[in-house]
Amino acid sequence: MTHPLDPLSADEYLVARDVLDKAGLLTPTTRFAYVGLEEPPKQDVLNGTARGRALRAYLIDVATGELADVVVSVSRAEVVRRHVLDPARDGQLPILDEDFVKVDEIVHADPGWQDAVRRRGITDLGTVRVCPLTAGWYGHAGEEGRRIVRVLAFVQEYPSDLAWAHPIDGLAAYVDLVEGRVYRLIDEAVLPVPGESGDYSQVEPRTTLRPIEITQPDGPSFRLDGNLLEWQGWSVRIGFDAREGLTLHQLSVDGRPVIYRASVPEMVVPYGDPGPARYFQTYFDNGEYLIGKFANSLELGCDCLGEITYLDATVADDHGRPRTIRNAVCLHEEDVGIGWKHTDIFDGSSRTRRRRRLVISFFTTVGNYDYGYYWYLYLDGTIELEVKLTGVIWTSSHPGGDYPYATEVAPGLGAPAHQHLFGARLDMMVDGTGNAVDEIDVHGLPIGPDNPYGNALTRTITRLSRESGATRLADPARGRVWRIASTERNNRLGQPTAYVLHPQPAPVLLAAEGSTLHGRAGFATKHLWVTRYDEAERYPAGDYVNQHPGGAGLPGYVAADRDVDGQDIVVWHTFGPTHFPRTEDWPVMPVESCGFTLRPAGFFDRNPTLDLPEPDHCHRHVT
Description:
By secondary structure, the protein is mainly β. The chain contains 8 helices and 34 strands.
C-alpha cells in the first residue's frame, strides 16, 4: 500500500478473511456479498494523517439467512465493528454469484414450474434459461424478512441462439433462497413464445470499411505511478470498487483541487409493464448486483483503440477470496477535434488548435445490458462523464396492436419501456473544502424603460443554502445549470472560482408517487441534491438496497436540513434516458449515451489552452 486510497490488494482480502475466520465469524455457510475499502476519514487523508487500512464486508449465512455488516482493520488484524441486520427493516444484502446457479437448480426441479413450461409447448426443459431477478419490496404478506428472488425464463434452442429472443412470458417463479424452494408461482397467461431467431453471430460482416490506425510514436502524454495518474496539469487517483466500479479520487488541475471523490454509486432500472408477471421488474444494478464484479476484461482494438494502458481490478468472490479482473480499466488519450480556432478579419491571421482529452473507462455487463463508464478530462479543465448503454434489451411476448407498455421489435416479440437512472456522487472540493452551490437560470426581460427594445438577456442566481432547498429539477427552458463555487478563493477579478454542472435534462423517476418503488428510489426523483459531507453517506439509495422497504438514502440524508453554504458539500446528480425501444435496438442495441459535464467558470483567469502547439501547416494569413 502506497496511499490510503489505493484499491485493496489481494493480500489484504486474504488477511481480512483470516481475521474474520479467527474471530469465529466464518462458517462453512458464510458468504461474502460485498467487500470494499473502508476509506479513512477525508480530513485525515487531506492532512496526511491517515493511518492503517480497513475493509468493509457484507456477510450472509446462506443456511440461516443471518446478515452482518462488518469492518476489519487489516493493519491491526482485528474486527472493528459488526452490525447484524434486521432484514425486515434493513433489507437484504446483494445477490451472490452462486445464487444464479442455485436458482437454476431450484426452479428446474419444481414440478409446478415444469408443468407450466410444458403447457407452453416447450418439451425440452434443458433449453430453458432462467434469470434470477431481485424481488424489490411490495408489502406482500409472507415476504417480510425473507431472502427471495423472482424468476423469469427464456428458451435457448442451440448454443449460439439468443435466448432473449424467446421469452416465456406470463410465468414467474418466486424463490426463497434460504429455504431453497419455489414458494409461489405466478401463471398469469399462456402466451406464445416468439420464434424468430435473434442470433446476430450469423450476420455476414460488411467489407467496405477501411482501417483507421491511431498511433503515438513517442508514447502517451500521461504518467502513471501505481494508481496516481498525471496528465497535462491534471492529477487523479484511480480506484475500483465491487459496488461502484470505477472511482476517481483527489482530482486536481494545476495543483488546485476540484473533486475529492467522484463515482456513480447507484443505477436504478425500473420497467414500465404493470402486468402480474412483470410489475416487479426494477433493478438497482449497483446496490443489488454490484456492477464492479461484472467488469469486462478489455481488449486492444475491440474496447479501446490507440496507445492503451490498462489497470487490473481485484474484487472478492463469494468466499471472500480475491479475484483479479485483467484489464478492467482503460487509460488513453483521444483527439476530439477542434479545441479553438479563429480567422481574424483585422490582422489576417488564421489559427487552429486541436482538442485532446484523457479517457478513463471501464465496461460492465449486468444481465442483458452492457454499460461503459467513460470519464473525460480535457485540456481546458472540463470534466465529463459519458455512460454508454448497449447490450440486449429486455424482452416479452407482445400481444399485438398498440400495446402501451412495450414496443414490438420482432414478430410477437416485445421490449418493455423502462428507464436507466444513474446516481452520481461528486464530493466537491473546488479550491478547498468550503464550497456552495448556486442555481443559475437564464431569461429575457419584458419591454420597459430599462429594456425599450426587448432584447435584454440576463440570469437569476439563487444560492442553495440549506439541504431542504437544494433538491432540484433541471429546467432546459431556462438553461438551468448549477455552479459549485469556492467560498475560500476568488480569481483576479474578485469572482469566486467555480465549476458549473451542466445536466442533460431528461425525466426523473416516472413511477407513481406513493408507490413502493418511489420510496425505494427516492434519489431518482430529483436531478440535483446537495448535502453536507458525511463519510457515512456513500450511496444514493442507502447502504442496503436489496428488498429494502424504502426511505433510505438521499431523502433521509437531507431530512437533517444542514447548512450547505460555504461548507464541505457533496453534489449528487441523477441522469439517464427513458427508453421506449425501437426496432433498431434489436437484436443488440447500438450505443446510447447519457451523462453530464463540469466546466470551469472563473476557475482560470483566461483560456488555459492558449499555449497548445500549432499543428503542422495550420498557421496562415488570409489575404
